[in-house]
Request: fold
Amino acid sequence: MIKVFLSIVTKELLDFLRSWGLVVLVLYSFTLDVYIAGGGMQIEPRNVSVGYVDYTGGGISQKILSHLHEPEFLTPKMFLSQRELSKAIFNKEIMVGIIFDQEFEKNYRNKKEATIDVLLDATAASQSFTTLSYLQNIVLNFSKLNIPIDIDIHKLFNPNSDEHSFMALSELLSVITMLSILLPAIVFVREKEEGTWDIMLLMPINPKITILAKSFSQVIIIVAGVMITVGLVLFNGFNLPMNGSFLAFLLLTFFYAFTSAGIGLFIASVSKSMMQTAQLSMLIMMPLIFLSGAWTPVYAMHPILEKLSLLSPLRYYIEGCESIFFRGTDFVDLWHYFAGVLILGSILYWYGFRKIGKLF
Amino acid sequence: MANLNVNSVTVIYKGNRIGIKDASFKAEEGEIVGFIGADGTGKSSLMHAISGIIKFKGEISFGKYVYHSPKEAEKVKKYIGFMPQGLGLILYDRLTVEEHLDFFANVRNIKMDKNFKTYKQKLLHMAGLSRFTEREAEHLSGGMRQKLSLICTLIHRPRLLLLDEPTTGVDPLSRLELWEILDNIRKEEGTIIIVSTAYMQEASKMDRLLLFDDNRIMASGTSKQLTDSVRNYVYKKTPCKDTDCLELHNVTYSLKPLNSEHKDPTLEDIFFINALKNRKKLTEISVSKRERRLEIPPIVMEAKGLTKKFGDFVADDKIDMELKRNEILGLFGANGAGKTTFIKMLLGLYPIDEGELTLLSQPIRSGRDRRKLKSKIGYVSQHFALYKNMSVRENLIYFASIHQIPASEALRRIERYGKELGFSDYLDAMPKDLPLGINQRFSIAAAIIHEPVVLFLDEPTSGIDVIARHQFWQLLKLLKEQWGISILITTHYMSEAEYCDRVVLLKEGKKIADDTVENFYKKHPEASNFEEIFLEYYREAN
Amino acid sequence: MNIGVIKAYILKEFKELIRTRMIFIVYAIPIIVIVLFGYGIKLDVTHSRVLIIDNDQSKLSRELIEKFKHSKYFNATELNISESKALKLIKQAKKDAVIIIPNSFEKRLIKNQKVNIGVFIDGSFPNRARTIENYIEGVIIDDLQSYAPKTSISTNVININPRSLFNQAMRDEDAIVPGLIGFVLLVAPAVLSALLIVKEKEEGTIFNFYASPISKEDFLIAKLTPPFILHSLNIFILFLIAVYLFNVPFRGSFTLYWFSSELYILISLAIGLLVSVVTRSQIVALVLTVVITVLPGFLYSGMIMPISSMSQESYIEAHMFPVMYYNHIIYDTFLIGEGLNSRKIILYLIILTIYASVLFILGRLFLKKELKK
Reply:
């Protein structure tokens, strides 16, 4: 039986390696795609264009402005009137406009409340939020000079706030999800499309072994791809920290790959062609990825979505991986991620397995 | 007068692969020209060139239009009707019969007047589709799809009609109807019709034949002229060991005169004689004894009242059948008569709705009953489905290992089959690079790698050229003789009935005849070939 | 142009789209995307789980804790556990930040002596960490400022008076949902049109086009009209979802929104058309379309970050994709309402028109009416 299992696995791996289109897609997803996402996605404000109108004639206002510097801000651009400034914001040439009124300097010196008007282009809400908090801090620093307080901030796990390694990891997890659904589905649908399905059914093997061997072969491909990405792209390209146990990560990935394979089996059992497979996978994958907390923390979601996200195995997988890479969480403390993946995984795989098994 | 004049047309594909070389011929109004030849000898390439959908060298003129490229051919396209190869390839699965005709008419800018409506009804009637106008193409049988494709191609009354293997995979009855339509059209409209076909019997319906070989036009003439040209080489079966000789199961060809009685030549003979003339060696097929001896029961398969329903449609209706040890049983019937469904029921690919099935003395009631038997059954499906990303050898190794044949034994067996079935040279090729005939023998090798006792073959010979088909039947015969194997086979080539021990005829899901081939001929002494017998049964049953 | 031929093809395409249930995909995917992303993406950081360890237990420290508890940005809890235990909670991803108020916090403040507040933040989500950091600082300093007059501390107070233009409430939905329309209307029509021609190639029905006297232009018009009409309906559906489900204000001209969206759909269809013309199988066409539309459509939509603050290469790339131009117009119609008074919008409309024309010309050039050798 082991021998038959292995020959099916070998056959599937060979089949995969010879389908160059698929190989290119998988390699692209595991290398370039992750690389582009990690390199290109930047949420922190960069080169924010600032314009200002200064009715005070310099002094404190210029001191404040001198704190807005690269890389976060471009050198502030002066405007002569508030109208011109607003117009520039309308045309998206300027994102933040600062107005120092005539009373500003006087009030400040007299220790009265001095007010700065800030115009934000809130159509770019994320940048507006961060820019505003930057400004607030700069200004607070001005006020704070006289408060005897020192806020000692330690950012744990990722002290430089390196966005790239984080984005790259998130993308990798999405890629794993996509491929570990698609590949097992393709393995079965290809047999249907090429007409070898009947031949497969007529083999003197227990169908369970066929299904298991076929999904296992694809899990191997995923795990191999993950090794490539982590070694080549994440550690080398983005200096991703590895604060936890690599073994734990591999193990979790392995279980997770089976979980998604279950979804893949389900898709394969209901679709007749590659086209249907692709469409169905897209329909299933989108909610799965967006319910996972990859883009936005789960607890900040709409309450209904938050509840729903408990059903997404990807949620446990992503949190688990972040904990392993960044937080360096101990193996024992990872148990609920493992439990989440394993429980949902067993249900999904069992369901997919049964569904495709009925076709045998 | 719109005559067709093809002048030294050459089509070359990427990588310098030749499609057709230096083809020239003429055709006159109302003439039917047949393209005859094996798969991949350039028939389709020439058709594509004439219909102006592929670049070519040379010159083609139709009436007053002369063209040298697809671009120049644009102006004649309104006079051309082209039907490409493939069962209903040009049909849209989700459109109904009626919608198809309207669509094709609209695309050709035909006024939907009374004239059109009468013509449409006539076409529908000719194709026997009048009752099915509301049916979506997806649910039509192969023969119906071909007929629908044909009338769609005819809807704009083309002056030049090009049909690429319109009858392949189509049953004799549908084939006959197709030809009736064509004959009417050319008589009424004076259309030039160019048809390619793999059925030699159809050649007699053509005014002129072009024989294709080696991507050239090898010979041309009427059916009679062509057969007469080889008359001197065809003899009744006589032993002859010369290199200028070729001995088949009921005929002998010899380039030198033999001291033996001549036989009436057929078109098929031309291909063998041509091969003989060109000193092409035909692969000698051999089969050695089984490696493992097996006890085979006298009745290999016994079906009692097997029934399969798809919704309201009864695909197989209470069919009784027996397959004896050491017997080749041919399963014949029109498209949609229930042949494939029957085989799939035997194999367990479709559940049996009613009836009893006994395979190798084992009553089949559940999947478990079958599992033990799987290693004794071999199956080749309609499309020779094999894994296309693996070489011939890898495919065979895979099948062997699934059947738990030890590796060393498997490798030895593969080498042996390669030699005996004549595909040694192709062992490391990919299935898609194989000629169709080789692909078919290799599919058989995959199906017998585990030395089964019974073989189910579903239309294994469709689209394969004369010589390869002959070799294929030789192989089956040897398997029967050497292994005592039983074979159940379906085919649309009526001439192949001669190779079978017994023939079962199915019609609309019912068995209408079951007898030995000899008895069939005895019952129908007036019939000159099996096709006539077949048609008679079909007409009687109506 | 041959109206009869075009009509026949359009009729056929519609029947096929409906009978193969592709029509479901045409409407389901855009709606799912906009609803999921619209609810799913949160740019503001709210409800960060903060643990405060109060070693002082004074009036001042309790006031500070109250401030945190009342902020919508925090889910603050007070627990008196050791620092190492608190850090472990971060490690287990149960807390996002820990704030440690030292003992003698109040005493030292009154005496105007230096006070150290320790803050630990989970940095694995870098952007969130930065925002949390700013918010924590903000709350602490704000609290002390309000306290300042009561003590001897002297302060110069500067107030920031932010006025968000166009999106006063700073709602995520207002910022995200219009951008999503630009994303969806780029991806969905492209996917549909990419399949339309390659499907005929794969199934063989393309012969009907090759072997008939239909002109390439008529064929393209006939093929693209059904997806164009179907997706035109999406313009309205997405508008309704944005305005009524997400309550995004609509301040501009609906005509401009409608017109520019139709233009944009044409561009998307043309992208799909180009893919369809150069590929041979449906699956390749699908993957290729997804690769060239999804990531750029998302990155350069301006949802995640404004184009102006992109690095040089991304800045140039962004200008090469249509989504940036369209989204500028669409944000205007929803949130600003400047409309055609803005020179930039007129310029962008012209750019989109050129974009569409160039793509269609390319598609027409690459479409062959003969078998590929």
Chain C has two domains: 3-41+170-366, 48-150.
